[in-house]
Amino acid sequence: MKIVCIGGGPAGLYFALLMKQQDPANDITVVERNKPYDTFGWGVVFSDATMDNMREWDPETAGEIQESFNHWDDIELLFKGRTIRSGGHGFVGIGRKKLLNILQARCERLGVNLVFETEVTSDADYADADLIIASDGINSRIRTQHADVFKPDIVTRPNRYIWLGTKKLYDAFTFDFVRTEHGWFQAHIYKFDESTTTFIVECTEATWLAHGLDKADQDASVAFCEQLFAENLQGEKLLTNSRHLRGSAWLNFQRVACEQWWLQNPHGSHLVLMGDAVHTAHFAIGSGTKLAIEDAIELTRQFKQHGNDPSQIAEVLNTYQALRRVETLRLQNAAWNAMEWFEVCGQRYCDQLPPDQFMYSMLTRSQRISHENLRLRDANWLGGYERWFAEQAGMHLSTDAQVPPPMFTPYTVRSVTLKNRIVVSPMAQYSAVDGLVGDYHLVHLGARAMGGAGLVFAEMTCVSAQGRITPGCPGLYAPEHTKAFRRIADWIHRHTDAKFAIQIGHAGAKASTRVAWEGIDQPLESGNWPIISASEQQYLEGVSQTSKAMTRADMDHVTAEFVAATLAAAEAGADWLELHCAHGYLLSSFISPLTNQRTDEYGGSLENRLRYPLEVFAAVRAAWPNPLPMSVRISAHDWVEGGITPEDAVLIAKAFKAAGADMIDCSSGQVSKKEQPVYGRMFQTPFADRVRQEAGIPTIAVGAISEADHANSILAAGRADLCAVARPHLANPAWTLTEAAKIGYTLIDWPKQYRSGKTQMEANFAREKAMGQ
Fold first, then answer.
1. Average pLDDT score over the chain
2. What integer pLDDT is reported at residue 38 of this predicted model?
3. How many alpha carbons lie under 13 Å from residue 268 in its C-beta half-sphere?
4. What is the C-alpha separation between 531 and 467, in angstroms, rounded?
5. Is a pLDDT exceeding 90 seen at residue 376?
6. Torsion angles phi and psi, residue 157, rounded to 5
7. Quick one: 645 exposed, middle or buried, by C-beta within 10 A (0-12, 13-18, 19+)?
């Protein structure tokens, strides 16, 4: 098979040598624009796992690389006068030039034809090739030439960075954060050979401009960075090898992701993209070289399985794309998370978080590293951090005490202290009769209170019969409702140490519908009642009832209903009250521009749209006992163009904070059926994180939090203060107790009637864990 690799980076060179090694009859050429044994760049990073793959596929090359690379396990943070170090992370650093030189030499020994100082502008230059590898980098000419087929999605990110080096040597992957009068700078620092270290400096565009770095040449930029990180550098100079770049050496990262990876050109040659030409991963997790190397390995594996006959190429490339696309997207998503963390850390984390928590947040920035994964990497560091976290929560632990993980630390709001940070979410049960909760609710909520959670929410409880979502929804608008809820609150307080919360709301345009199992959001077949909202609307276009736009009199009437429900919740003995301003219900319909079309002082700007919900909040807060907490649930993202965005959510949270809210419960969606949410584990947690840091108010994280590792990671990083768990609590009322046993935390108390089951469950999980090892 005749193979041409356009671009002599890691992807092209490594694929060439693997294919030549696999079948010496392959005629392989690598075409590179630079001179022999010449390249630009400092060090590159890849993981221990990638090195293991290389040892399997070509031990000789892996051995040469191993002799030249710098390996380290530690990550060190320099921040606010502190130096914090964590180990067990497993990185490999090597000079880019050294890596390419090793690959070039290996190619030559195997008989690969290396052609240097040759610019390739088109794959048509190699019409006789069976297979053309376009590994010509992030600015790939070949990809551009066939952009209509490859469909590249190229996103230029806002931060500025400059890739420098220094002769100062470091024994850990080091991150240094420095605050200036115009904002934060961060340096990504790692040694890659016996005498040189990569030193990448990064900042926001606004900070870069404020310091005049847009007008600085390379020498001035280097001098600026030397002064900025002088304490770290201790007299050493910063070096640049970007003299080939015109003007400033500050760059913007470009994320590349292609929809299609290969094609057959008009000459019959099969053309496939590889490395940075098809996908890029931000340097924040150092996966660019890893992706390139593993692209080469996977394509070689497919040829080994299918054979080198040209007739097999299309099948090979189809399989290669399908397999690598999944892994690449996973790594690109992790790199995107890490990249975004560094882009916003100055605004969101550097000033807000103390050094210990900032370190945890930084280590888990990609969301690939979880709480228990950190324990595997460095149990001593994590144990020390958990002790610090518990002490911040007010716990006083002896030196030999078992330290609770974050989810099992207490949390105090006003006069209420929760025994832990797990919340049973309000989940509609559609089992009330005329608004009255009964035995079902007592068993349902009582079981979950016995299950170990710190706070148990009843489902959205409606302030009027007209405000119910369905005929099966509970209410607090009649004396018998208060008495029924009092029965539940008394039972929970008498038999458990959980706290009981009531969420009050009004369904608005989503009222008068069937219970979920008879057709969720569908209007009742009979017995519908009039519905109201911020504006005239149908939730389901052409299906739902049409709501009436509220008048001032309607607003006054509904506000009074909210106040009455609040007084009833207090009389019922609830420990906590939440105002429902999310999911397209009445108060949410005022906030979202998708549902508020008013032209009076309650419509238009966000300030105006918030006016009525804030009026209701103020009235409710005044009626609710001052020593007791009050939270507000918001839809932090409508997932529809033109709707509420996470940026808006920060402003909404600030407004409720100013009005006296204690916490913001950050949900999203359900405002419009046109929504296009992006689901995934903990998919709504970023909203809680952003609101907490930027609005400066505690938050509750919700959405696809399904295991202790999720909750501990969220809480430890300061992304939220409480974690609300919904569906897992439907499947297992004792979810909190079960998760404690799974992770080996034995100090959690069980109901005395069930304690004989505690030791058995803990022993079973311990046995499973031991067998798994």
1. 94
2. 61
3. 7
4. 8
5. yes
6. -85, 160
7. middle
Q: Report which residue type is found at 289.
A: T
CA–CA–CA angle 631, 634, 635 (5° rounding):
160
Q: Where are the beta strands (DSSP E) in 216-269?
A: 238-239, 251-258, 262-264
Distances (CA, A) of 415 to 493, 600, 618: 16, 40, 20
Crossing angle of helices 313-348 and 288-306, in 10° steps, is 160
Q: Which residues contact 624 (CB under 8 A, 6 or more apart)?
A: 566, 569, 570, 577, 630
Q: Is 704 exposed, middle or buried (0-12, 13-18, 19+ CB in 10 A)?
A: middle
Kindly state the DSSP code that residue 523 receives in the 8-state scheme.
B
Distances (CA, A) of 44 to 75, 102, 328, 335, 649: 16, 14, 18, 15, 39
Whole-number Å distance between alpha carbons of 709 and 748: 16
**Pairing state of beta strands 722-725 and 422-424?**
parallel
Q: Which two tokens stand for residue 299?
A: 């394509």
94 forms beta bridges with: 44
Specify the pairing of strand 197-203 against strand 183-191: antiparallel
DSSP label of 116: -
Q: Are 317 and 267 in contact (CB under 8 A)?
A: no
SS3 of 275, please? helix
Instruction: Give CA–CA dist 216/227, Å, rounded.
Output: 14
SS3 474: coil
Compute CA distances 651 → 505, 617, 656, 719, whole Å. Answer: 21, 16, 9, 18
First to last CA, the chain: 45
pLDDT, tens digit, 9 for 90 and up, residues 493-525 = 999 999 999 999 999 999 999 999 999 999 999
Using CA atoms, how far residue 129 sits from 143, 496, 505, in Å, is 17, 74, 68
Decide if 705 contacts 685 (C-beta within 8 A).
Answer: yes
Closest CA to 4 of 285, 396, 274, 315: 274
The answer to whether the CB of 388 falls within 8 A of the CB of 356 is: yes
Catalytic center residues: 585
Q: Is the pLDDT of residue 119 over 70?
A: yes
Can you give the C-alpha Rg of the chain in angstroms?
30
CA 21 to mean position of chain CA atoms: 41
Containing H/E element for 56?
helix 48-57
The pTM is what?
Answer: 0.92
**Burial classification of residue 328, based on how many CB atoms lie within 10 Å of its CB (0-12 exposed, 13-18 middle, 19 or more buried):** buried
C-alpha distances (whole Å) from 298 to each of 13, 26, 306, 310, 324 are 14, 18, 12, 18, 7
Beta-carbon contacts of 676 under 8 Å, excluding residues fewer than 6 positions away, are: 639, 640
Cα–Cα distance measured from residue 449 to residue 602, given in angstroms and rounded to the nearest whole number:
40
Strand partners, 72: 91
Contact 453, 736 (CB under 8 A): yes
Q: Where are the beta strands (DSSP E) in 499-642?
A: 499-505, 532-533, 548-549, 576-581, 630-635
